[in-house]
Amino acid sequence: MRFHTREVFDLAIAWLALGVAFALFFDSFLGIDLRAALLAGDPNALLSPAILQVFGLSMLTAGVGFLFHELAHKVVAQRFGQVAAFRADYGMLFLAVASAFAGFLFAAPGAVYHRGRITKRQNGLIALAGPVTNLVLAVGFATLALFSTGFLGAVGVFGVGINLLLAGFNMLPFGPLDGRTVFAWSKTVFAVTFVVSAGSAVFVLLQFGFGL
């Protein structure tokens, strides 16, 4: 896999920004007032074990889910001979952090852009790679949740929820989301993936109230 310096920088900034956004989103579930610590600007509070733990939880679940989702698009695109690179949307990253600070979350950190001659099937497979990767990650996190306790157990639980939500959201057949491209290629593949992704995401919302 080939990366340019700007792409690595964009991936790192997007991962960090999403880590902050989801940490703000997670704090209400974990009983940690990260907003107050940020507003106070107290370095001792920001570096407290509880806040470092929630930030680590965010980076290892939402951050990893985002990173592998985008890398999956890139790997498949390059497999089909495309020139592919991730570009962060800095305006949307700011909105993600600001919305999380306000108590809700809207995250669209950027996308993998690719160019070159391509078939509709190949384009559909590139789009499908992201949500499918999140489903695979959810299975891996579920194993961690079942066989671990403490911080690792929390990583497993939140990893399952976030990755199922990422898969379900991205399979919506609207706008720039992956589901629209998959739907344009194959209605059957879209239907199967959408039912699995969206059904799992709805289950998570109903059972655990992740509240996106």
Note down, in words, how this protein is organized:
The protein is mainly alpha-helical and 212 residues long. It has one domain (5-204). Helix content is 75%, strand content 6%. It contains 9 helices and 2 strands. It has helices at 5-30, 34-40, 43-46, 49-79, 90-102, 120-147, 150-170, 178-185, 187-208, and strands at residues 83-88, 110-115. A two-stranded antiparallel ribbon has the order 1-2. It is globular.
Summarize the structure.
The chain is mainly α and 212 residues long.
List the helices and strands and how they pair.
Blueprint: H1 5-30, H2 34-40, H3 43-46, H4 49-79, E1 83-88, H5 90-102, E2 110-115, H6 120-147, H7 150-170, H8 178-185, H9 187-208
Antiparallel strand pairs: 1-2
Transmembrane segments: 12-34, 46-68, 88-113, 125-147, 153-177, 189-210
Protein name: Peptidase M50
Keywords: Membrane, Transmembrane, Transmembrane helix
Labels describing this entry:
globular; mainly alpha; two-stranded antiparallel ribbon
> What portion of the residues fall into strands of 2 or more residues?
5-15%
Q: What is the H/E string?
A: HHHHEHEHHHH
Strand order of the largest sheet: 1-2
The rough form would be described as globular
Quickly count the helices: 9
Low-confidence stretches: none
How many discrete structural domains?
A: 1
> In angstroms, what is the radius of gyration?
17 Å
Compute the separation of the termini in Å. Answer: 33 Å
The residue fraction in helices comes out at: over 70%
The number of strands is 2
- Overall pLDDT score: 85
How would you name the oligomeric state of the polypeptide chains in this document? single chain
